[in-house]
Amino acid sequence: LMLAQGYPLPEVDIAAQYPEGVRPTRELTALMEYATALAYRLFSAVATPPDFRWFVILWVAAISSLTIPAFYFLAEKVSRSTGLALAASAVYGLSWAAQSNMIATYVFESFALPLMLASLACLAAALDGPEHTRQPHACAAGALMVAALASWHLARFYWASLLLGLAWLTWKSRNEPDKQRALRDTLTVIQTILILAGLSIGCLRENWFAASPIMIMGYGLLLWLWFPRRRKAVCALTLAALTLAAWKSRDSEAYAHVYSY
Length: 261
Fold this sequence. Notes:
Elements: H1 24-27, H2 31-46, H3 52-65, H4 67-79, H5 82-93, H6 96-99, H7 108-128, H8 134-149, H9 155-172, H10 177-200, H11 202-206, H12 213-226, H13 231-248, H14 251-254, H15 256-259
Helix pairs in contact: 3-7, 4-5, 4-7, 7-8, 7-10, 8-10, 9-12, 10-12, 12-13
């Protein structure tokens, strides 16, 4: 509501976390709040300003619904069948998991999930599409992943699981030069975008995302793809870097509630 009324977020918000306060622009993923406030102000500029609470309800429903077309494009790319993609999207859209993020909720996951699925669809298009479309799809995948990371602090664990899948795909296609080149070129673009985001976005910079264990996994995979004849050295270097990052990383403190489950 503060942003929607045109007020900036405070440097330290004591009301949000008493008594020490919290730095919302550096310690919280506030992209969802910024997007909601901007949409409300744009709507109010061309029409009678609605009640903010009702606007938020409709806004969340609209944004969460974008998960379904993102899911469709992903399913269509994977299955290469329009019918199967439509059926899968219908099943997902009517499922409890999808409905719980569209009705009576206003959580970070509701905003980030369409971004993550759209990023995954672009990643699939980059890996499996024509070479001349690889870079645009990879850029879109990286940009959408950055938006998801700036929207939900748990999105980084989604990226970690995706990296593990890409590592398996890299090993499976180790004797297929074309697939290795597609993986290398795509991951190079995405990792570059994530590094720049980690150095420039407050909530990512605060937790040293660019030097986090999750990003080091990506660096190691990228080195494996770029230097296939130095795989033993790459593995040793990656393990050493992961050990150091796990020791010095701020993730263990910031996400202790995740690791404890």
